[in-house]
Design a protein that fits this description.
The chain has 172 residues and is mostly helical. It has four helices and three strands; from the N terminus they run H-E-H-E-E-H-H. It has helices at residues 9-35, 55-67, 93-114, 117-132, and strands spanning 44-49, 71-77, 82-87. A three-stranded antiparallel β-sheet has the order 1-3-2, covered by helices on one side. Strand 2 and strand 3 form a beta hairpin. Helix 1 packs antiparallel against helix 3 (93-114) and helix 2 crosses helix 3. It is globular and about 50 Å long. It starts with 8 loop residues before the first helix and ends in a 40-residue tail after the last helix.
Length: 172
């Protein structure tokens, strides 16, 4: 991993404060979901296209995302710059977009705090572009996500019980 040799103390402080805020907010949300009546929350594994290809930024982003309760990075595709993460409480497309915005925001704060000047300029340009296009998150194209890694499975295509559960019942 190559270090940029650049550290912006103000951006570092903002990164730390936002991390603390995210941890507290997510902890309260998880605690409430654990005690509230009703059906359990729906979760998802989603792919998030990162803005940079830096191993250091990718690692720090994955760690920062995993520290916040409710999100865990399950895989990283370094070549494509994709994070696959398990997200808690994703009921609809808006929730998925919110998680993607959170991940990209974390990556932006990390790059602005410790990234190279070129990375910081690229992040600022991507932020301006997202704001100009209605703040839509960067979503990987279907060709970027291998079909064997991430796909939706309809409930009717899943087993209600494990097929091996019936083995040995005929012997008794």
């Amino acid at each position: 991993m190559l270090l940029s040799g650049r550290f912006d103390p103000w951006r570092g402080l903002l990164l730390g404060l936002r991390m603390m805020f995210d941890v507290v907010r997510a902890s309260i949300e998880i605690a409430w979901a654990a005690v509230r009546p009703g059906p359990p929350p729906i979760n998802a594994i989603i792919a998030v296209q990162l803005l940079t290809r830096s191993d250091l930024v990718t690692t720090l982003t994955a760690e920062a995302i995993s520290v916040v309760p409710g999100t865990v990075v399950v895989d990283i595709d370094r070549e494509r710059g994709l994070l696959y993460l398990h997200a808690f409480g994703t009921r609809d497309e808006e929730d998925l977009a919110h998680v993607r915005r959170q991940v990209l925001g974390t990556e932006e704060r990390i790059v602005l705090a410790i990234g190279t000047r070129e990375q910081a300029a690229a992040v600022r340009a991507a932020r301006r572009h997202r704001r100009a296009t209605g703040d839509r998150p960067v979503v990987p194209e279907p060709a970027e996500v291998p079909p064997h890694v991430a796909r939706e499975i309809a409930p009717e295509h899943t087993a209600t019980r494990h097929p091996l559960d019936d083995e040995g019942k005929d012997d008794a």
